Amino acid sequence: MTASESNWNPDSWRTKPAKQQVEYDDPEELQQVLGKLKTLPPLVRPEEVDSLRILLAQCALGQKFLLQGGDCAELFDYCSSEPIENKLKVLLQMSLVMIWGARTGVVRIARMGGQYAKPRSKPTEIVDGQEINAFRGHNINGFDIKDRRADPQRLLGAYFHSAATMNYVRALLSSGFADLHNPNKWSQFSLEHVRKSETRREYEEVVTNMLDSLSFMRTIGADPFDYDGSGRPDGNMRLDVSKRQSMNGAVPGANYHLPKVNLPPPNGILNTISLYMSHEGLHLDYESCLTRPYPVEEDSSTRRSSMHGSQPGSGTSSPSTKYYNVGAHFLWIGDRTRELTGAHIEYFRGLVNPIGVKVGPTMEPEELIRLLDILDPNHEVGKITLITRFGQHKVEQYLKQHIEAVQATDHRVVWCCDPMHGNTQVLQNGVKTRHFEAILAELSKTFRIHKDCGSQLAGLHVEVTGDRVTECVGGSMELSQADLSTNYQTYCDPRLNYEQSLDVAFLIAKYFGRERSGTNSL
Fold this sequence. Notes:
By secondary structure, the protein is an alpha/beta fold. Helix content is 34%, strand content 14%. It is built from twelve helices and 14 strands. The protein has helices at 27-39, 46-60, 81-102, 153-174, 197-220, 284-289, 300-308, 343-348, 365-375, 395-407, 436-452, 498-517, and strands spanning 64-70, 105-111, 124-127, 130-133, 275-280, 291-299, 317-325, 330-333, 355-359, 384-388, 414-417, 424-426, 432-434, 459-463. The strands form four sheets. An eight-stranded parallel barrel has the order 1-2-5-8-9-10-11-14, surrounded by four helices. The protein has a two-stranded antiparallel ribbon with strand order 3-4. A two-stranded antiparallel ribbon has the order 6-7. The longest helix has 24 residues, at 197-220. It is globular, with a radius of gyration of 22 Å. The model is unreliable at 223-238, 241-251 and 300-317 (pLDDT under 50).
């Protein structure tokens, strides 16, 4: 289904009720800014989006694992070389450890280069007895109470800070920052933070074996299979659909299809990686300005596949126009904006981009299926990533029914666990934190429930930073509530620091290792 066939356009959302949108005191200035945004060049290319579509289809089929991580809400000040390098470093290290443990490629998506908006439960807040605008993120207003006016110029600031961030990431990756032949730039695994000697020995064994394998590969000049999960597949790559029978109850000939895309040529697998950018699609004025039409060759079998289960490539091609959001590779819909008849769902349903949907305890299984039918009417494998965030005490109550509801359809989604948002705790002094043990508990239960349902958890969504902040308690550093004031930096929700992020990666690697040995526990 094309956007034109469904009476969709980038502004059709304006006919629907919109939540979390911003009221500006100067509509004329806003329109001038939006007009400028529409003329600015894309931040990402459609071909890059298509590459990610293929990789997420592989995640949905159990062939790769998704790692999505970054800040809760970026600040413009984070657009600087050191914060960008630190976030890139921790994502690379986490993915390498997970690749080693899972023996599968990892698809890396950063919450970065555009994650400036912050949803709020109320548009205002009380400070010192005065009602003022709430802080909505740096693309709307400032954190300082004197800077709470919704300023349209900040939308341009968001675009240019996103552009600068993405440009620097591209420069780093193209210049060998992630080169496994020269790991000194980013892969120095310091384990000094691990306090328990037994845990440190386990981590050291993983790191030693992993680096020995890399050294052996470099020695023999090997460049074998898609080892690093960079997933720069060429146009001839075929998805292994023989695995689909074990995924979510799928059977051969089911009513879904794989994406047909044109992909760029591959890079050297050990020389670089692919990193995709994402943010929550919250501010629809901004998103619609960066939604552009592109002519594509559409295989006629793609349209028939929803009826006959055929795969692309067996029909004739015809030109059509499809819309890509070129401000990010991947966008997600938050728990506050997923109303079926709302503006956000109307906007997202017309995009080619892969889409994430946050799924929490308030989502009814029937509502979830109706949502999938709207966002994924053609049953494209991996089109939708369901990011579950129930909390450790509710995941067993709700996750199974959501899995079974999806299994009864022809939607082939990427199941991804966000073990952080449902486990936020506010202390008596008003400080937000999260307990590492609660994060681990929800992740462990999610792995088990998927396995019991004949499904597969295929992704992890976490709020992390490469800096040594003290915002979450626990982990191998054994941080306590008393340690939070040491370096509590977040303006939004608490993030895992560098060491705690690696803890998660090591524990997932350990889980997959035990799965292979038949002792499955996390």
